[in-house]
Each structure stands twice: as C-alpha cells, then as structure tokens.
Amino acid sequence: MRNQLEPKALFLCYPAVQRPFMIYDNHKRPITYLRLAVTDRCNLRCFYCMPEEGIKYLPKHQLLTYEEMERVVRVLAQLGVSKVRITGGEPFVRANLMDFMRRLAVIDGLDDLSMTTNGVLTAPHVRELAELGVRSVNLSLDTLDRERFHRITRRDELPAVLQTLDALLAAGIQTKINAVVMDGQNIEDIGPLVELTRNQPVDVRFIEEMPFNGEGSHYPVLHWTHQRIVDEIRAQYPDLAKLSDPPFSTSANYQIPGHRGTVGVIAAFSRTFCGTCNRIRLTAQGTLKTCLYDNGVLDVRALLRNQATDAELTDAFLRAFAHRPVNGFEAERQRDTVTESMATIGG
User: Fold this and answer.
1) d(CA 326, CA 277)
2) What's this model's pTM, rounded to 2 decimal places?
C-alpha cells in the first residue's frame, strides 16, 4: 500500500499535538465536518424531500451498523474531522440512537457533536442530548401553521415539533430552525418565522429549495432565490442588518435590532458558499459524498466489510478528498440528472 501521507498537499502537519494532521482537499479547503446519516427512513413525507408514497427504503443489512459508523468517525477524527452532525432521514426513527450518541460523545478529537431532526420524536431525548454535550440542533420547520404543515409534510405533527422547539430552548441547546422556502407553499410563513427571533435566542435559516425530492426539480426556474428571500425579509423588517459570517458558514446571516435571535439565508441551489465548504457526507448505506451534488465517490461500506485496515481506510479517504469538485455545479455536471431523495443523501 502506498504511503498513507500521500498526497502531501492534503496535509498541514503539527508537531506532537492532539491531532497530527489537518485534511485539505485539492482546492486547499480544510475538511473538518462530517454529516453522518444514520438512516434513510423518515416519519414525515415532505413533498420537497420525497414523493407522497415515500421512497424504497434499504433493507437493514445494507445500512452501516452503528459499530461501522463509529469506526469511520474514529478514523476521520484522527485526520482532523472535529465536528459530526447526525442526520437522516430522521435520526430518531432508528432504534438505539442515544446509545450511539453516547459512544460518539467520548471519541478523542471530536469537539462538536450536533444533530438535524424534524422534531417529531425528539422532545423526550433533549435533556440527555444536553447532558452529552450536543452543541446545536437543526430543527426542520417550514411553517408555524398547522394546516400548511400538514400539507407540506403530509403528516399532522406540528404540535410535537413545537414541543421539541420549546424543550431545546429550555435546555440551552443552540437551536437553528431550517425552513425551505417554496413558491406557493409557505411564503406567508417567512414573517412569522422571522418573528420567532424577537424574544427567543433562535437562529431561523431560510433555504433555497433543491431538486432532491425523489422526482427532480419542481420548477423550471427557481423563483425564490437567496436574494429574493432577503428582499422579502427586508420588506417586512427594513432595519435588517447584515452580520459577519463565521468561517465556513453556509448561510448569510442577519439580525433585526432588538431581536434576541438571528436570521440566515442559505443559497443551497445557487451554491454561493462552495469556495469555503469544509464538509463531507456519509450516507446511511456507507457512500461518501464530498459534495452534496455529487453521485457518491467512495463505497465505504464495501471497504469496511472487506476487512480494510484503518490505514487502508485513511488512504481511500485521502484519494477521494484529492479529487473533490471545485463546487456543486461541477459535481452536478459529472453525473446524471439529480433525482434522489434528500432522505437518502443525509441532509
């Protein structure tokens, strides 16, 4: 096997400290953040994520086991990945999730353990999430209106989601609400969602709709671009002020004077943040994605189940990172039409 330090351009080396390496891709972007999908299943049927009849879920043996996922996280943590966000599908539909979270929480080098959830099953676990040191939770919530919630998600679960929101805020967990902006569906919810930031320390982030719904794009043209979303918010809140964005932020961030929380807008379809992207994804079936829009670049499950050593896993990861597309547009050009569901990608 070739030297696992190759290609050398991927590393910035440090003398005998906690981590020997920091991974850089072929465009000199650090890779420090893993989004780890623990399941492809979901208990909602959001129309922008999957068809009404759902998607064909993978049999259990085709999903990574918790032990396999833990091993991957340990290998990546040794390479400098310091943040892991648990995603799905919906993470809490997989049995024994909290046992897995406890094991991740003690991995050396993992400084930030976070989660994305739809909130339907989350409230009973919030206290333990806080005790484990979970830093932040992204809560998917596209509307505060129960009828519209039912229409968008095809499930009547808004009360459970709002209970989770209250529990997260009470526990002091940094809470980000993710709202996909959809033409003709929830435009009237932009104002009420922004209003949540007045009295609560919550970050409300509006996201351009993407074509990951199991069918392809709903619109020939994206009408609600990131700039139009900002213009709509500013029309309702003329004193909306731009904030400095933290490193690697996917959102352009704002605050309304006097409000406790913040507002963000994510150009997920326009892909304006690719130049500073520090994240990779591992799907529930063990496919590595170095870009949300790529078709998968490495079958990690096959490596694990063919008894690959940690050194061989490391070498395979480094080769994948050395051929990362410069942005989501290049990644999309290298594949067929995007038709998969976001539930199979890992959020």
Assistant:
1) 10
2) 0.88
What one-character-per-residue DSSP string does 37-60 give? E--S--S---TTTS-TT---PPPG
Rounded CA gap, 146 and 152, in Å? 10
Cα dihedral sign for 189, 191, 162, 168? positive
For residue 36, the SS3 value is strand
274 is in an annotated binding site: yes
249: annotated binding-site residue?
Answer: no
Domain extents in the chain: 8-345
Of 87, 84, 85, 79, the closest CA to residue 30 belongs to 79
Strand order in 279-282's β-sheet? 241-242, 251-255, 262-266, 202-208, 174-181, 136-140, 112-117, 83-87, 33-37, 279-282, 287-289, 298-299
Q: Which two tokens stand for residue 266?
A: 């994510």
The span from the CA of 230 to the CA of 222, in Å, is: 15
**φ/ψ of residue 299, rounded to 5:** -90, 90
Q: Is 346 annotated as a binding residue?
A: no
Tokens representing 343 are 């539930």
19 has binding-site annotation: no
Q: Residue 195, exposed/middle/buried by CB under 10 A (0-12, 13-18, 19+)?
A: middle
Helix (H) or strand (E) holding 327: none
266 is in an annotated binding site: no
* Fold classified for 8-345: TIM Barrel (3.20.20)
- What local confidence, expressed as pLDDT, does residue 213 receive? 45
Tens digits of residue pLDDT in 227-267: 999 999 999 999 999 999 999 999 999 999 999 999 999 99
Which residues are within 8 A (CB) of 177 and not within 5 positions of it... i.e. 6 or more apart? 138, 139, 140, 141, 165, 193, 196, 202, 203, 204, 205
- The reply to whether 314 sits in an annotated binding site is no
Confirm or deny that 13 is annotated as ligand binding. Answer: no
Q: Find out whether 182 is annotated in a ligand binding site.
A: no
Q: Write the pLDDT tens digit of every residue in 272-329.
A: 889 899 999 999 999 999 998 898 999 999 999 999 999 999 999 999 999 999 988 8
Q: Cα Rg for the chain, rounded, in angstroms?
A: 20
For the stretch 91-102, what's the b/e string if a residue is b when 16 or more beta carbons lie within 10 angstroms of its beta carbon?
bbbbeebeebbe
The Cα–Cα gap between 89 and 344 comes to 7
> Annotation-wise, does 89 bind a ligand?
yes
